[in-house]
Amino acid sequence: MHIWNQLSTFQLIFNLQAVVGSIDPHRVYVKDHNDVQLKTIRVSNSGPNGEEYAWYQCTVNGKREGRPVGAYELAKAVEEFGAGEILRNCIDCDGQGKGFDVDLIKLISDAVSIPVIASSGAGAPQHFSEVFYKTNETVALAAGIFHRKAVLLLFW
């Protein structure tokens, strides 16, 4: 069965938001925004060699294998195929606890009209505030912040 038919079937049986596309990109710095044919942005933090631009390469197998596909382009395709949400990870920030990649979040959430879940990078409560104040993001995922006990939940 073609992927389009599979997604359509899921949408009919469940609902649009039951189909979630997951994107695992990492930042690739370039000297000039014309260096690649994929969507490139000016980044807020320069690269290791002073690069001001980057694109986000989609990866598989935990960044061990890169693909010649940009996160922006894949997000647009996932929405077009009918996904109801996108889970957007950031391989470079995952497990670091230093905050979300706000540049990546803005790139993806501004590109599509479906909800995008920001994932990877949270290490403190203010990282969530930063995401919500600096981007159009409405959902951010917390996982490692609890595993590392940076934030404790009390139940009574």
Shape: globular
Count every helix, treating DSSP H or I runs of 4 or more residues as helices: 5
Element pattern in H and E: HEEEEEHEHEHEH
Name the beta content range. 15-25%
Helix content: 25-40%
Structural class: alpha/beta
Strand order of the largest sheet: 1-6-7-8
- Strand element count: 8
Poorly predicted residue ranges: none
Sheet bearing the most strands, described? 4 strands, parallel
Provide the residue-averaged pLDDT. 83
CA radius of gyration = 16 Å
Termini gap: 49 Å
What can you see in these coordinates?
With 156 residues, the chain is α/β, with parallel strands linked by helices. It is built from five helices and eight strands; from the N terminus they run H-E-E-E-E-E-H-E-H-E-H-E-H. The strands form two sheets. A four-stranded parallel sheet has the order 1-6-7-8, covered by helices on one side. It is globular and about 55 Å long.
Question: What layout of secondary structure does this protein have?
Answer:
Elements: H1 3-13, E1 20-23, E2 25-30, E3 41-42, E4 53-60, E5 65-70, H2 71-81, E6 85-88, H3 102-111, E7 116-118, H4 125-134, E8 139-140, H5 144-147
